[in-house]
Design goal:
The structure holds two protein chains of two kinds. By secondary structure, chain A is an all-alpha fold. Chain A is built from eight helices and no strands. Chain A has one domain: Orthogonal Bundle (MetI-like fold), CATH 1.10.3720. Chain B contains nine helices and ten strands. Chain B is α/β, with parallel strands linked by helices. In chain B, helix 6 (188-203) links the parallel strand 7 and strand 8.
């Protein structure tokens, strides 16, 4: 126990650095996947069949295969198979590859949630807008969008909390996120080796961060309760 | 000149002909009631007038201007249709108010968006905004909703919602205001307040087309009644003629059904 207390400051500092990378991946994924998901949702609802089939095919493949495999393929495929290592070898390249995989993966999940949200808004809302001489774009942004957001907040909260934990999969391409940082103390890092507790300790980070997110998303849900 | 002329409108959905060669016209300030059993095509007719459905055949003219002619290939430009449908207003059976806006905002929204497209909007923004708000307030007052302007639709009763919806349609000053069974979603107690508002509009010479199942209301308020059956206009005339001296057997049968129901309700 005394040893752990001595190691603690060193470990926490290293884990903080790793968690920063985790958070970076988390936010980059959200910023990319939230709008991309909307584009895919509109694509799969398009009346132009080729586009809608293409979008559904992408969603099927991405949701039907493990994110870990997608990470490995996106990171290694260009270098090992095409002899064109576009990501480079460094941490920046790994982060880029991981971001791309996560954005694509989560955009597909989000798109299905959006699709449900948009289709759940009664047709009468659009018709009322049309009869009042509104443009389709105005109807979407002024009428449908907020009603859709209200509908999708609970399922999106679920996905967002899953995303926090899924970022740990980036460990598989050696992205130096918090799991990587915790695991490093087993082999030896910062003068500490053979310690497994730092890896276990990382769970606290996820738990606290998800606690904060749960509170924030709950507040958003409450805020949208001003209408029904 | 009639304010509205509808000639030979036909509409088919998936092999079912819903409207079969309908023609009628309406003078300015007249109230036309359309009665008939469910599925007779009344709602589809209103939706065609409001460009929510496109007739397969026929012509629609407002104030002599041809708004729709099925024999002319459609440009189908959104802006064109938007301009044309502003001749009509439509009040829905299920209100279709925008839930995230207050009563006042519901009435103002469409006009605000239209005003933005006018030249010189930016310079006169504040002035225009005030004018739109003033109009919304006076319309809601006219509907008896002066205390409800800042309520959201879920805080209002069905009758109040429908009156907001009427104010919202009036805000765009349509030539012809259409009602699609405006009281069918309401409790009998709330029906009266909506019918009263429509009566007041009639006395102000608003041109209206009302699809309704309220027979005594239709008889009182209309200048013209159409009885629709199976996609045809079976009978057409002033209310006295249609209600008291119907020519067609089917009309008699339909009206008798209502008489029975009335007695059944102990009225």
């Amino acid at each position: 126990m005394k040893l752990i207390m001595e190691q603690m400051p060193i470990v926490i500092q290293a884990l903080n650095v790793g968690f920063l990378q985790t958070l970076k991946l988390f936010f980059v994924t959200l910023v990319g996947a939230i709008p991309l998901g909307l584009i895919i949702a509109f694509g799969s609802m398009s009346r132009w069949r080729p586009l809608s089939y293409l979008c559904r095919l992408i969603v099927w493949v991405v949701r039907g295969t493990p994110l870990m495999i997608q990470l490995l393929i996106i990171y290694y495929f260009p270098g090992l198979v095409l002899n064109n290592p576009i990501w480079g070898g460094g941490e920046a390249g790994r982060f880029l590859a991981a971001s791309l995989s996560f954005i694509l993966n989560y955009a597909c999940y989000f798109s299905e949630i959006y699709r449900g949200g948009i289709q759940g808004v009664p047709v009468g809302q659009e018709e009322a807008g049309l009869v009042l001489g509104m443009k389709r774009s105005q109807i979407f942004f002024r009428v449908t969008l907020l009603q859709m957001i209200k509908r999708i907040v609970p399922p999106m909260s679920n996905e967002i909390i899953t995303l926090v934990k899924d970022t740990s999969l980036a460990r598989i391409i050696a992205l130096q996120e918090i799991i990587w940082a915790g695991q490093a103390f087993m082999k030896g890092s910062h003068g500490i080796s053979g310690a497994i507790w730092p890896l276990f300790f990382t769970a606290i980070y996820y738990l606290v961060w998800n606690g904060i997110l749960t509170v924030l998303l709950g507040r958003l849900e409450k805020k949208l309760n001003f209408f029904r | 000149m009639p304010i509205l002329e509808v000639e030979h409108i036909r509409k088919t959905f998936e092999h079912t002909e819903v409207l079969k060669d309908l023609s009628f016209s309406l003078e300015h300030g007249q109230v036309l009631s359309i009665i008939g059993s469910s599925g007779s095509g009344k709602t589809t007719l209103l939706r065609c007038l409001n460009f929510l459905e496109r007739p397969d055949q026929g012509i629609i003219r407002v104030n002599g201007e041809t708004l729709f002619d099925a024999s002319v290939p459609q440009k189908n430009q959104e802006a064109d249709i938007r301009r044309k449908r502003l001749h009509f207003g439509l009040v829905f059976q299920s209100f279709n108010l925008f839930p995230q806006y207050t009563a006042r905002q519901n009435v103002m929204l469409a006009r605000e968006l239209l005003a933005r497209e006018q030249p010189g909007y930016k310079e006169r923004k504040k002035e225009i905004q005030e004018e739109i708000e003033e109009q919304a307030v006076s319309l809601l007052r006219q509907m008896g909703l002066q205390d409800r302007m800042d309520n959201y639709p879920h805080q209002l009763s069905g009758g109040q919602c429908q009156r907001v919806a009427i104010a919202r349609a009036l805000a765009l000053q349509p030539d012809i205001l259409c009602f699609d069974e405006p009281t069918s979603a309401l409790d009998p107690e709330l029906t009266g307040e909506v019918l009263k508002v429509i009566r007041e509009l009639a006395s102000c010479n608003m041109t209206m087309i009302i699809v309704t199942h309220e027979m005594s209301f239709a008889r009182d308020v209309s200048s013209q009644v159409i009885f629709m059956d199976d996609g045809y206009i079976l009978e057409q005339g002033d209310p006295l003629q249609v209600f008291e001296h119907p020519r067609e057997e089917r009309t008699k049968q339909f009206l008798a059904g209502y008489q029975k129901e009335k007695r059944g309700n102990g009225e």
